[in-house]
C-alpha cells in the first residue's frame, strides 16, 4: 500500500516547482547556443552618451558585422564586451558568464584585436606570440604548437624573426590577428581588422576570418560596407550609439524590395510606353530613356509590396512588344545603410 504524504496544496507547490525547474533547464540549454547576450547596455562619458541602451544576441559560430560610421559607438561596445571597459548600466554575458562579475572566465574565452594594436615593437614576431600565448595560460609545448599554427594562418612565417617595430602596417595587423587567435578562443572580437592593408592582404584576411565560422564566433567592427557583405552572416547597424537594425544582409535588402526598381527594355513607341506606365496603378514612378536600336529602357518603381515583373511580362506578351530585359535592381548594403540611418524629418529640422 502506498501512502500520499502531500495534501493538495503541497502537491500543487511541488508540481509548480518542477515546472520552474524544467523552465530553468530549457533556458540554460537555449543559452548554450548563445555566445553574446547584451541587454540594455549604456555607456556615458560625462554628459555624452556613447552607447545608448542597446540589446542584441550573437549565436555560437556566427560571423557578425558591427557596422557604423566613426563615432557610432562600435569601439566602445567592443571594449565593454571584452571587459576592457565597464558599462554605465545594463548587462553583458559571454558564453553565459557576466563580463563584469566573471571577468577572468570571460577573458579566457575571448581573443580581442583592438583598432590600434598595442604590440611590443622591440620584440620579434615569434618571440612576441609565444610570450602572449604563455600569458594567456598555454603551456610551453602547446604555446609553441599554437604559435606555429597561427603564424601559418596569418602568413607570418617569412617574418618570424623580424622585429615588430620594423614591420609594415599590414604585417603588424597580421601579428595582432595572430595574437587574438593564439589561445583558440571561443569568441574573436576584431575592431577594424583590415585597416591599413593592401588589397591582397585584405583578401587573405577575409578568407581567414570566413574560415573561422562554426568553430569560433566572430564579431567584426567596421565602417567599410563591402567588408560586411563579403564576410558576415549577420549585420548590426549602429548609429548615434543605438542599434538601428539587426538581420542578415539578404533580409535587410529584402525589406527594401517593396520599393525597388524593375528595369525593362522594350521595343515600343516611347509615347505609348509613357502613357502605359502613367495609367498603371501598380507603378509609383517611372523613367523612360532610349536604349540600343528600337528599344527603350523603362525604370519602374513599384508601390510597396508589388513585384512588377510578372505584370510587365504579361503586358509585353499581350501587346506583342519585344522584351529584351526584365530585372529587379538589387539594393546594395550601402542603400540599406543609408535608408536605416536616414534622419527623420524632426531631426532634420533640429
Concise synopsis of the structure shown:
By secondary structure, the protein is α/β, with parallel strands linked by helices. Helix content is 39%, strand content 26%.
End-to-end C-alpha gap? 81 Å
The computed structural class is alpha/beta
Largest sheet: 6 strands, mixed
Rg, rounded, reads 27 Å
Question: How many domain modules?
Answer: 3
- Content of β-strand: 25-35%
In CATH, the architecture of the largest domain is: 3-Layer(aba) Sandwich
- Average the pLDDT over all residues and give the rounded result: 84
Extract low-pLDDT stretches: 344-350
Question: What is the CATH domain class of the largest domain?
Answer: Alpha Beta
What is the number of beta strands?
14
> Remind me, CATH topology of the largest domain?
Rossmann fold
The CATH superfamily label of the largest domain reads P-loop containing nucleotide triphosphate hydrolases
Helix amount, in percent?
A: 25-40%
Element pattern in H and E: HEEEHEEHEHHHEHEHEEHEHEEHEHH
Work out the helix count. Answer: 13
Shape: elongated
What's the arrangement of strands in the largest beta sheet?
6-7-8-3-9-10
List keywords for this structure.
350 residues, alpha/beta, Rossmann fold, 4-stranded antiparallel sheet, 13 helices
What does this structure look like?
- The chain is an alpha/beta fold.
- It folds into three domains: 32 residues, no CATH class; 219 residues, Rossmann fold; 74 residues, 2-Layer Sandwich (Alpha-Beta Plaits), CATH 3.30.70.3100.
- Helix content is 39%, strand content 26%.
- The chain is built from 13 helices and 14 strands.
- The strands form three sheets. It has a six-stranded mixed sheet, with helices on both faces. The chain has a four-stranded antiparallel sheet with strand order 2-1-4-5. A four-stranded antiparallel sheet has the order 12-13-11-14, covered by helices on one side.
- A hairpin with a 2-residue loop joins strand 4 and strand 5.
- Helix 4 packs across helix 5 and helix 5 crosses helix 6.
- It is elongated.
- The C terminus is likely disordered.
